[in-house]
Amino acid sequence: MIKFLQKLQSPSSESPGAVWWAFIVIAAVILALLPQTLGLAQLLDLSVVLVLALLALSMSFLWGYIGILSFGQTAFFGAGGYVYAVAAMNFGTTTLPFFLGILLPMLLAAVLGYFMVYGKLSDIYFSVMTLVITLIMNKAMRATSGSQYVVGDVRLNGQNGIPGVPPLQVPWNPEITLFIDHVYYLAAALLILVYIGLRLLLTTPFGRVMIGIRENEQRIELLGYDARRYKLLAFILSGALAGLSGTMFAIWGNFVAPEMFGLDRAAEVIIWVIVGGKATLIGPIVGVGIIQYLTTWLGMQGVGQVTLVLGVILIVFVLAFKEGLVPTLGNLLLRLLGVRPGGQAEPGSDNEKGPDV
Amino acid sequence: MSDAADMPLIETRRLVKSFGGVHATDTVDFTLKKGELRCLIGPNGAGKSTFFKLLTGQIAPTSGKILFDGDDVTGLSSFEIARRGIGIKNQKPDVFDGLSARENLWLAAQFDTDKKTADQRVEKVVDELKLASFVHKLVGELAHGQRQWVEIGMVIARNPRLILLDEPSAGMDQEERIRTAELLKELNTNTTIVVVEHDMQFIKRIADIVTVFHRGKILREAPVDVVLRDPEVRNVYLGRTEVA
């Protein structure tokens, strides 16, 4: 348990232990049982949290693992949603559009990432460029209200967005479409799989080099690794994850709009990750849950300036809980257990043995 | 000695690096034969670390050439030069603070091999450098000397053909310095090594030939004892140092 808590401090390249796997099983069981106790409206709310958690993971993967802050995750998120919507409405089937919603944002990330990474943009310019890309895509989609902006049979509709996005069909039986609870189960399964996949990626040579780049890019290069190649691959993977999230968002809401690319959404992703803890994978998921719940709750209380409140929360976390909620709570628990946070277990304890690297 | 051994492993021709008009490295012609163990000395700011950074591609030269094993490597990236077989320990510990010592070593060892071989290399280095007592600790929490050992271990774990060590014994106690000197001599049996050092006892223990840098240029290149008696060298550098 102590090792598990220590791993909450930062991404670790150690193989996840039994406690971690037990945590996964418990989380999966809880997620599987929740629909039994929740109404459809609550299930709908929870589903979007799971879908947006995929977007948060795409950001924390890039920022927490390899140290690149990208504002462009919403560009790939929006692209995923629009690609699915347009393709599904044109093709009449949804399986291929589902995968296109992942593939095309991935290709977009590959092209943009290539020029930014191999163009040797510094970290800050990389962040600014991704922000600009998001803003351009938002602006471009808003400008498609004219009847000439048609892809196949689908009008893009400018800032009104595209309503009536088809629900996902069962691939082997297109007659059956996924209902609210099915979308929930799919989102939960995808989130768990992505979470496991990203965690296990850290134990691979690729994942370890990624952490190495975050820790000390110069040393990674001096060891013979081409850091740019790893950065590009990480950016492509995070683009695919954001695209998956956007696709699921379109399926969840049966609607896409330029807000998916918006600055508000781009800022929200950063708030989720900072609040939860960017150096962990579980933190951003927790961050999405808290912020989404808070946003809904504040709206129900009639608070008009929800964005302002979220801004204050961000400032508080940046100043007071720099590492985010999950690492901070992990630290607290470790102190209660008498272990120095981030340090090694006491000699002779069960946790003394280190990682099997 | 065979012809192959007489071949220069690394060579610079009229190498220059300027920063805003100041020549940190000034028309340096440097040659190192395969199998040599050379020490570079000179006062602070003499250009030794800049020279190392040029050799490893951390900075690009303003002019001149760098040849490694006969190939022109001028202007290549750090990773491309590292892949050709040059390993460096920088002046300040240049490690992955957020990872354990073992993970640091593993990252170095696994670059060009499979997991099993990388594991074996790591075990060998841990054993040779006696790192077992702190190999599971985060490097950021280690003492300066231990961090130096981890970085030296990272360099060795890659089996480079040329090892560049910038002040390897800094922050180490006397016993550790002796250990480091012995280690370098052992490594030198099959690896070419260049060491930047200030500790004359350490230098005398390991090197035959010393290259003296001063104001970005090579001032002298001669056996240790000759250099230590050279009035000009003593004037620019050793005048401030006790020479035994």
TrEMBL record, chain A:
It holds the Pfam family BPD_transp_2. It is a multi-pass membrane protein. The chain crosses the membrane at residues 20-40, 46-68, 98-117, 124-141, 183-211, 232-257, 269-291, 303-321. GO terms for cellular component: plasma membrane. The keyword Transmembrane helix applies. The keyword Transmembrane helix applies. It is found in: Cell membrane. Its main location: membrane. This is Branched-chain amino acid transport system permease protein. It comes from Sulfitobacter brevis. The lineage of its organism: Bacteria, Pseudomonadati, Pseudomonadota, Alphaproteobacteria, Rhodobacterales.
Automatic annotation (TrEMBL), chain B:
InterPro entries: AAA+_ATPase (IPR003593), ABC_AA/LPS_Transport (IPR051120), ABC_transporter-like_ATP-bd (IPR003439), P-loop_NTPase (IPR027417). The keyword Nucleotide-binding applies. SMART domains: AAA. Residues 10-240 form the ABC transporter domain. CDD domains: ABC_Mj1267_LivG_branched. It comes from the Bacteria. It holds the Pfam family ABC_tran. Keywords: ATP-binding, Nucleotide-binding, Transport. GO terms for molecular function: ATP binding; ATP hydrolysis activity. The keyword Transport applies. One of its GO terms (cellular component) is plasma membrane. This is Branched-chain amino acid transport system ATP-binding protein. It comes from Sulfitobacter brevis.
